[in-house]
Specification:
The protein is an alpha+beta fold. Helix content is 22%, strand content 28%. The longest helix has 13 residues. It starts with 7 loop residues before the first helix and ends in a 9-residue tail after the last helix.
Length: 183
Amino acid sequence: SEIDPAGVAAALRAGELDVALIHEYDFAAAGPEPGLATADLCTEAMYLAAAAPVPGTPAVTSAAADATAIARTRDAPWITATPGTMCQQMTIRACQAAGFTPRTRHLVDDFATTLSLVAAGQGVALVPQLGAAGPPPGVVLTRVPLARRTRIAYRRGAGAHPAVAAVTAALREAVPPQLRAAG
């Protein structure tokens, strides 16, 4: 089931879900939830997606994060997630840390759709590494010094339950080795 992130904790506590994936971003961290336990799953780099290289970006692409890329998009329209989501909160706070408030043109919660809008020249966006895999032609990705962390959440004390343990093991196996959390 895909549910609003704000409802995950209540759904787990109510037994409507046994296991959930929760995200936490730099600038948008989730606090501990009563009655729940979490286990680290993976950490992804974040990317600025644009239809053309961001002015001032070095001609040679490197794996190093570009700390000034977001600031250079001050005048660009932005594609953000919908209000109330951690993804939108992270984008707004990252832009504010770079000295501006983003001018939002589109509100989208799907990274493939976001990247299609970027390719069409409708704005720039911040996307996590897994959401940026296989971007459409015309999208330029610039790594920025931000991360998204994914955790596995379940009711406290349920981590050893065979079903929860099996799902946790399967999720960890599905994560690319370079993104896996230690431990």
